[in-house]
């Protein structure tokens, strides 16, 4: 079965396991619940450890259930290879750690998920990695922010929590002109609505806990390699990929795995040493989620547009930040990149500050107050006091988050019920 002839909806069901399990005939991907694997011989063991021969070594590195998930997401994103890890945070951290070290510099978007922002400005900074936070859609600001030691430009498909639209094509052109790698977190759009690699991104990361899992049951992260970035053309800039790596027998990953050097090094060095591997059961659960991704996302988006229409005309709602609205600054970009709609995670503002926002949230009956998004169920949270609470007032303002900001994640329930719930909660403020 040739992947390039198949539509997304077919790939999400079949990629990674085109034929039934060779051993059992099982149609569903089996859960290979094992920690280690028997080698055929001492020579075979030696060859696998030296990357001369394919095959499983240890559960921290590879697993057949995990492999099926990796092949499926690579096919859906249009990448050459993928790596599944224990969480979205691990995916982000490992992707950045793979190429950034003391003395390096990263340019990151000013509308990131609070955890990613914190990781860059505190965790990475403590390791000697400098950073600049900027509106990466502003080409002049981005060009000004890039330095000779900048290795990575990092952004998200949609900003969190306000659903700003990222102009990946323009950002990629700017980053590549300066020899920088573009890493895009595609969690909010999913590969069904956006494939950043097709727009110039080099690496894609996901919190698979969100839309891919779809039901708030399973932690997981994914890293997808485009395989086309010319690391060697940048001299010694990406030494972890172009120079002999003492962590792995002096391997030069750009030579050893030319089609996927980025994820190969993470698997064989970073994941090996730091260990945030995905469990076979969680890989299985994410595979189940992927099979219905397009169906759920279509419903998420349709419901969100109905809810946005209601909220944007409600007298107690000061503003709604959703790019489908003509008043949104990214409206034209949204229409160009997302003709079928997107952004089921967005924010609204009401008068009355934190207390009014909390009163509204606590009055909701269908929406669940919790720190997640993209569940089949509709969710709500107050970012300034939770997901982005590690940011100071100045940082919150730069991210366009106020004490009145409320983030909604629209689920797959009946939209009329969601609108009624929002309406009764607004009546109480």
3D architecture notes:
By secondary structure, the protein is of the alpha/beta class. It folds into two domains: 3-290, Type I PLP-dependent aspartate aminotransferase-like (Major domain) (Aspartate Aminotransferase, domain 2, 3-Layer(aba) Sandwich); 294-426, Aspartate Aminotransferase, domain 1 (Alpha-Beta Complex), CATH 3.90.1150.10. 38% of the residues lie in helices and 14% in strands. The protein has helices spanning 8-14, 42-49, 64-77, 88-97, 114-126, 139-145, 168-177, 190-193, 239-242, 253-256, 261-274, 280-291, 293-312, 331-337, 353-363, 393-398, 415-426, and strands at residues 81-85, 105-109, 130-134, 150-156, 181-185, 203-207, 221-225, 317-321, 345-350, 368-369, 379-381, 405-409. It has a seven-stranded mixed sheet, with helices on both faces.
Task: Briefly characterize the structure.
With about 425 residues, the chain is an alpha/beta fold. The chain is built from 17 helices and twelve strands.
Figure out the total of helices.
Answer: 17
Task: Please outline the major beta sheet.
Answer: 7 strands, mixed
Strand percentage lies at: 5-15%
- CATH domain topology of the largest domain: Aspartate Aminotransferase, domain 2
Shape: globular
Ranges with pLDDT <50 over ≥5 residues? none
Domains counted in the coordinates: how many?
2
Radius of gyration, taken over Cα atoms and rounded to an integer in Å: 22 Å
CATH homologous superfamily identity of the largest domain: Type I PLP-dependent aspartate aminotransferase-like (Major domain)
- Spatial strand arrangement across the major sheet: 1-7-6-5-4-2-3
* CATH level 1 class label of the largest domain: Alpha Beta
Q: Strand-and-helix sequence, N→C? A: HHHEHEHEHEHEHEEHHHHHEHEHEEHEH
CATH architecture of the largest domain: 3-Layer(aba) Sandwich
Fraction in helix: 25-40%
Q: Please tell me the overall pLDDT.
A: 95
Measured between the Cα atoms of the first and last residue, the distance is 57 Å
| Computed structural class | alpha/beta
Number of strands: 12
């Amino acid at each position: 079965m040739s992947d390039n002839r198949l539509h997304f909806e077919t790939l999400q069901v079949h990629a990674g396991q085109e034929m039934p399990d060779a051993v059992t005939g099982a149609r569903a991907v089996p859960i290979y619940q094992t920690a280690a694997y028997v080698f055929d011989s001492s020579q075979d063991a030696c060859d696998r450890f030296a990357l001369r021969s394919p095959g499983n070594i240890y559960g921290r590195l590879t697993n057949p259930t995990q492999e099926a998930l990796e092949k499926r997401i690579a096919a859906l994103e249009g990448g050459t290879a993928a790596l599944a890890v224990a969480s979205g945070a691990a995916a982000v951290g490992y992707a950045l750690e793979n190429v950034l070290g003391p003395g390096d510099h990263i340019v990151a978007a000013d509308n990131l998920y609070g955890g990613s922002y914190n990781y860059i400005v505190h965790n990475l900074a403590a390791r000697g990695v400098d950073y600049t936070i900027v509106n990466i859609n502003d080409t002049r600001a981005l060009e000004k922010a890039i330095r000779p030691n900048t290795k990575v430009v990092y952004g998200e498909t949609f900003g969190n929590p306000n659903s700003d639209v990222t102009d990946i094509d323009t950002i990629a052109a700017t980053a590549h002109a300066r020899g920088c790698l573009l890493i895009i977190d595609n969690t909010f759009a999913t590969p069904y609505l956006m494939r950043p690699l097709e727009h110039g991104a080099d690496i894609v990361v996901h919190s698979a806990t969100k839309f891919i899992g779809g039901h708030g049951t399973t932690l997981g992260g994914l890293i997808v390699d485009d395989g086309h970035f010319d690391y060697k053309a940048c001299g010694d800039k990406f030494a972890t990929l172009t120079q002999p790596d003492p962590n792995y027998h002096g391997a030069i990953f750009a030579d050893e795995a030319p089609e996927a050097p980025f994820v190969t090094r993470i698997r064989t060095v970073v994941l090996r040493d730091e260990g945030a591997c995905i469990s076979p059961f969680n890989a299985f659960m994410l595979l189940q989620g992927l099979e219905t991704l397009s169906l759920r996302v279509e419903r998420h988006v349709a419901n969100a547009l109905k809810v946005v229409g209601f909220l944007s005309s409600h007298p107690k709602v000061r503003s709604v930040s959703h790019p489908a609205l003509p008043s949104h600054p990214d409206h034209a970009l949204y229409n160009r990149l997302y003709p079928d709609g997107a952004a089921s995670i967005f924010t609204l503002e009401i008068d009355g500050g934190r207390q009014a926002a909390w009163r509204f949230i606590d009055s909701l009956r269908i929406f669940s107050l919790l720190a997640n998004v993209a569940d089949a169920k509709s969710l709500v949270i107050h970012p300034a006091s939770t997901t982005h609470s590690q940011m100071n007032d100045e940082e919150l303002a730069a991210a366009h988050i106020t004490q009145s900001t409320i983030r909604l994640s629209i689920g797959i329930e009946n939209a009329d019920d969601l609108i009624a719930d929002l309406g009764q909660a607004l009546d109480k403020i």
